[in-house]
Design brief:
Length: 317
């Protein structure tokens, strides 16, 4: 039986259900389709799920207050032993929906269906914030964003009157620019990092109206092409490779050690910035013959702190 990937399946879902900006249903569908794709692509992932070593949760809340984030899908080891009896996905792969002990993979689904100029920048901030907040609480988690981008030249929002139709001028250019934003977004590139690990862009033609125009998946440019990091199946493979390398193969990554390295690099960056600023102030004072005695002491202190960091770096080798 051939496998139908999530980018095709979300098109069929939109045909049947339509799109509502205030409903999480399309995002939930995208994430569950992606989960099925991961189970299809990775035998290690599927085996761990069959053995009850991997489970999933929807609508997972991480953080508090301003740093609170509701994540569409998370995957990781279960908090308690589970009996995998349910059959999940179009090919009936078993995976349980249970509480997680820790997050190994986190996925957020976003969309740019209309008002592309404003929405795409908001979604870029959303993806960056999601990855940053998730990594604060689950530093080793692999993070991914699924982005649904509409290329229809007109669109009806259910939040507007029935005859209030949005016309999308220059839609090819708007979609091309939107895809480019997420092609260039900062990525972790397989490292333990606050950045997102991958973003997959799914371009659709969807008017959200019963007007005879059938919703379709856009595969020609400006939609991402195979081999590009934002192409949906390439995005799936990035997630598979990263999750397998970090959690499922061999000893995996020493996350604690990687975090120590990251903190060390942050300390180095902060210290060099502080030292540069103090050096600038001291230079200005020398030029004006108005030297502040405490600035020379501060520079000495920062030089000592920098020397400590360099010693720590030497210890890593």
């Amino acid at each position: 039986m051939s496998h139908t990937y999530g980018d095709e399946r979300i098109v069929e879902w939109l045909r049947e259900n339509g799109y509502h900006p205030r409903s999480p249903a399309h995002g939930s569908a995208s994430c569950l389709f992606l989960l099925d794709d991961l189970l299809h692509e990775s035998e290690a992932f599927a085996e761990a799920a069959r053995n009850g070593e991997l489970v999933y949760q929807e609508d997972y809340t991480v953080g508090e207050g301003q740093s609170r984030w509701n994540t569409d899908l998370v995957v990781g080891p279960p908090a308690e032993d589970v009996d995998v009896q349910m059959e999940f996905g179009e090919e009936n792969r078993p995976i349980a929906e249970e509480e997680l002990a820790s997050v190994w993979l986190a996925i957020d689904a976003k969309s740019v269906m209309t008002e592309h100029g404003k929405a795409r920048r908001n979604r870029q901030r959303d993806i960056n914030s999601f990855a940053d907040i998730m990594h604060r609480h689950h530093p080793g988690a692999v993070t991914g964003g699924v982005l649904l981008i509409n290329m229809a030249d007109r669109f009806h929002s259910p939040l507007r009157d029935e005859d209030d139709i949005t016309e999308h001028d220059r839609i090819d250019q708007l979609v091309e620019e939107t895809v480019e934003i997420f092609r260039d977004i900062d990525r972790a590139d397989g490292e333990i990092s606050p950045n997102v690990d991958g973003v997959g862009c799914v371009v659709v033609d969807h008017t959200n109206m019963d007007d005879g125009d059938e919703t379709r998946l856009v595969t020609d440019p400006p939609a991402p092409q195979p081999g590009e990091i934002v192409h949906y199946q390439d995005f799936v493979q990035i997630l598979v490779d990263t999750v397998e390398a970090r959690f499922l193969h061999g000893d995996g990554v020493d996350i604690g050690h990687a975090l120590d390295d990251e903190r060390l690099s942050e300390r180095l960056r902060r210290e060099t910035i502080k030292l540069s600023h103090l050096s600038y102030l001291l230079g200005e004072e020398l030029e004006s013959n108005e030297k502040e005695p405490n600035h020379t002491e501060e520079v000495r202190d920062e030089l000592d702190a920098l020397a400590d960091i360099l010693d720590d770096i030497d210890d890593l080798s």
